[in-house]
UniProtKB/TrEMBL annotation:
TM segment ranges: none
Family: Belongs to the acetokinase family.
Uppermost EC category: transferase
Organism: Psychrobacter coccoides
Its biological purpose: Catalyzes the formation of acetyl phosphate from acetate and ATP. Can also catalyze the reverse reaction.
Protein name: Acetate kinase
Binding, substrate: 101
Subcellular locations according to the entry: Cytoplasm
Primary location: cytoplasm
Reactions the enzyme catalyzes: acetate + ATP = acetyl phosphate + ADP
UniProt keyword Nucleotide-binding, yes or no: yes
Gene Ontology molecular-function annotations: kinase activity
Domain of life of the organism encoding this protein: Bacteria
């Protein structure tokens, strides 16, 4: 492990010639920072990840243009230091813009926005709705401002894509004042991913006219969205990313009276309940093993009953949700699977489609099995009622694209 920021001669040369007018994409989370430097034509990129932030084990894993791997320690694990080191690593490539993944843009932002003082203060203010993510986003913006005050920055909010949802989908059946005075409504998340894969599906399908997709982003976090003609009409996540599908450690939909029940019966505090629902539930809670589907699939194959139930519940809940979201679409062109699970687990895709057995969906088992490890393609047969696609998501590319568009660079 090295503490120094070194660049090889070949990397420098390769970088200068291939990375034309690159955009830096920063995805600052509570304990990690993902970054990508993407060339204007989107064909070349440098990527990296700062992980374990907040801990002494914090480090940056950086992949150069040549595919060479570097590891850089971050003594003390502070976000600010990690960002400084990332910027130092990329300094030589003369990036022309920075695009941030913003998690919560509230009602304010229905599209990507150029950062100014007002935008930065809104990102900070909206931490009430995303306490883990928005403060980290603000740190990322400020770190760039401190070192490169002249480089334009853009925030692409996870919530922005879903601002096209109609009131019938975004309102909760709660007293009106909660919405009007306190902005309590459904916002939706994973917007850049749903936008990217639905746009890509519309590019590669041969279906004519307007397209209605159900996009299933199944990773550690999971959400599904109904996208018609490029617009989100409904989605599974809500005020926070806890609503909707069962996830790695998040419960998804549960009875809202659970909080009061647990408080009364078990004396749990609201903080304890919140932690349990966000960090100890989902695949982890049911399997009792892990939030990682690979571990659970292996245990299930070896006969572990709780692992088998975790997978069955996961697939049942995704299928049930997709079936209900289909009601939002004027036309149902197809389903798009993405995210670590959606892109890699053929058995999970097959089980989800089997749950939706009344829809006339037909898929080719061999095609399904072949679509893993970053492959893009379809698995429906000719007589299927709808199309079925696996499209690897590329949130970094989408953020870079929206950043360039917002700044008029495209
Ligand atoms: P993401 O958050 O999109 O990185 O997705 C993480 C999830 O994808 C974890 O639950 C992983 O277990 C799952 N995953 C990644 N690769 C595979 C695979 N080959 N088979 C099954 N699940 C996978």
């Amino acid at each position: 492990m090295s503490d120094s920021v070194t660049t090889t001669f070949s990397d420098l040369n390769a970088g200068k010639s291939k990375l034309i007018n690159p955009t830096l994409v920063l995805n600052c989370g509570s304990s990690s920072i993902k970054y990508a430097l993407i060339s204007e034509d989107e064909s070349t990129r440098i990527t990296g990840l700062a992980e374990n932030l907040g801990l002494d084990t914090a480090r940056i894993k950086h992949t150069t243009l040549n595919g060479e791997k570097l590891e850089i320690t971050i003594p003390g694990g502070r976000h600010e230091l990690a960002l400084q080191k990332i910027l130092a690593l990329l300094e030589q490539y003369d990036f022309i813009a920075v695009g941030h993944r913003g998690v919560h843009g509230g009602r304010e932002y229905s599209e990507a926005v150029r950062v100014d003082e007002h935008v930065l203060s809104e990102v900070k203010r909206l931490k009430v709705l995303a306490p883990l993510h928005n403060p980290a986003n603000a740190l990322g913006i400020e770190a760039v401002q401190a070192i490169y005050p002249e480089i334009p920055q853009v925030v692409v909010f996870d919530t922005a894509f879903h601002q096209t949802m109609p009131a019938v989908a975004y309102r909760y059946p709660l007293p009106k004042s909660l919405y009007e005075e306190h902005k309590i409504r459904r916002y939706g998340f994973h917007g850049t991913s749903h936008a990217y894969v639905s746009e890509r599906a519309s590019e590669i399908t041969s279906a004519k006219g307007s397209h209605g997709w159900l996009t299933a982003h199944l990773g550690n976090g999971c959400s599904a969205t109904a996208v018609y003609d490029g617009e989100s009409l409904d989605t599974s996540m809500g005020l926070t990313p806890l609503e909707g599908l069962m996830m790695g450690t998040r419960c998804g939909d549960i009875d809202p009276s659970l909080h009061i029940h647990l408080k009364r019966q078990l004396g749990m505090s609201l903080e304890e309940i919140d932690k349990m629902l966000n960090s100890e539930s989902g695949l982890l809670g049911i399997s009792g093993l892990s939030n990682d589907l690979r571990t659970i699939e292996q245990a299930a194959n070896e006969g572990h009953k709780d692992a088998q139930l975790a997978i069955e519940m996961f697939c049942y809940r995704v299928g049930k949700y997709l079936a209900s979201l289909s009601c939002a679409l004027p036309e149902f062109t197809g389903i798009v699977f993405t995210g670590g699970i959606g892109e890699n687990s053929a058995t999970t895709r097959a089980s989800i489609l089997t749950v939706m057995r009344h829809f006339g969906i037909q898929f080719d088992e061999d095609k399904n099995a072949s679509l893993v490890g970053g492959a893009e393609g379809s698995l429906h047969t000719e007589d299927s009622s709808i199309e079925l696609w696996v499209i690897p998501t590329d949130e970094e590319c989408q953020i870079a694209k929206e950043t360039r568009q917002t700044l008029g660079l495209d």
